[in-house]
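Why predict the complex rather than its parts? Because the way molecules touch one another can change local conformation, and only a joint prediction can capture that. The input here totals 603 residues.
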Amino acid sequence: MTTAAIITMVLTMVIVSSFVTYFFTKMLRTPPKSEPDSFSENDEVPR
Amino acid sequence: MSSSKESWGSRVGLVLAMAGNAVGLGNFLRFPVQAVNNGGGAFIIPYLVSFLVMGIPLLWIEWSMGRFGGKHGHHSTPFILDTMDKGRFWKYFGVFGIWTNLAVAAYYCYIESWTMSYVYHSITQSFSGLTQGQVAAFFNDYVNITTSTTGIPFEAVIFYIACLVLNTWILSRGLSGGVEKTAKIGMPLLILFGIFLAIRGLTLGSSGATVEHPDANAWAGLNFLWEPQFDSLSNPSVWLAAAGQIFFTLSVGMGTIHCYAAYVKSKDDIALNAMAAGWTNEFVEVVLGSLIVIPIAAGYLGLDWVRENASFGMAFQTMPFLFQNWGPILATLAGVFWFGLLFFAGITSSLAMGTPWMGFMQDEFNVSRKKSAWSFGAVVLLLGLPTVFFYNYGVFGEYDYWAGTVSLVVFALAESIIFAWIYGIDKGWKEINSGADMKVPHIYKYIIKYVTPVFLLFVFIGSLFTPLNNEWASAMSNLFAGNGWLLDNGSIIKQIMSTGLREQIAAATDAATRANLEDQLFYISGARILLTVVFASISALVYIAYRKRVAEGRTT
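Output of the joint prediction:
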């Protein structure tokens, strides 16, 4: 592989992997919002 | 109000189901082929730009439209659009959000059934000892439904029906009990299988070179895929291909995201969820998708072969043969992993295609979840059987072109205008940020209002008037020289007229070829009539539902 190809591949993969890790981690670490919600329709659903 | 009592069981489940909706067969088969055909490493630049200015905005638009509709008890696009504006016409535009899914599910389940069948054939080692030509012929025999590779008569039809029944059964279990559970099992397995095969692709090197293919080298394949060719950046067709790939990969413009998001509570985040799901799809596509098919094929067959043969069909016609180089146990394992990966990619997408129809039937006609799921299965079966029986006559391709390609662009263009200009960007921006667990960059307010619709318009017009041989520079100079604009047979206008096929018929010299092409034209016309009838029928159902709402005093 040429240096340009390796740089393009590694850079792209690192950028994409970093974003997915960041957003997924942030999503998992964010605590759920407290009830009650304003969407009355789902309130009847057993949790 | 809606009779639907569905909801997501967990946030991770929702994001995995959304990511599963986006991750499809195209991530592993279409992306690398598009990259190879459009400038290798330079393709990634227009691809990522398209993701940033078109993909991400559309994700936020669709997630927020869905949650907004859910607040009003709507779980499918006709009445979601109807709620966003007083114009009574929009709900009929929303028909695209149901029609596309029925039509795409009809042929998509067929591909999904191939993966099921090939998992079976990998376990039973059907490909052991076969030459490359025999493995390719195996696939051709399979889709020629009169030939059976297992001894089961009409094997392709049986697998198709089994696949559809499985989809319908999962859908009948509901969102949290069916779709979410499947995503929670399927997505991690898909990534695990993908990592295993990607490691093989990355480490294969030149160990697969043989006397027949002495120059075979996996890294040459990777080099071809990632070597930047910056001159291709000025070619509009590369940008169109990149934007098109973003459509397919994110499943935007279909109505599935709206439907899934309609079951999100109004206080809950959509901004971060959309990013987590969207970037997961990008990871699967760019990181895993680029490290499997092309490097493994180049590692055994050489780069020249890949250049000439890179296509969707490689998954079934070439990969099983290549796996045989790894010995019987590893070949079986690789076959199960590869086709298992494709199966999970397929089923998590096809399940999403069932939910808009189910949401519509439940909301508007008080049909139970189970009945709406089985009605989806029945409609898809009727619509899908022609793609199975007349696969070799272009019916499959016709569905894919109109429902899986053109319809997405038309609907995405319409929804971006409705959201930013008719509903209003200020209200839309508030909707995106409502309950957001991340700060949405303010620049996106302007991107959503101006850049995304213009970008979509460029994609639509570019597809409508594609110049001859995709050569934009010479088409422009011809136009300015007063020589007009010659359309390519792949443009929407020429496709409507079936110009390419008619030219082939006119040029055919022997009677058998001519008869075959005329048969193709007949079946393609039949497919178009069928698709139009389905669209008209859904529009009629939307009208009946609207009258029902008026009679019940439920109009918004």
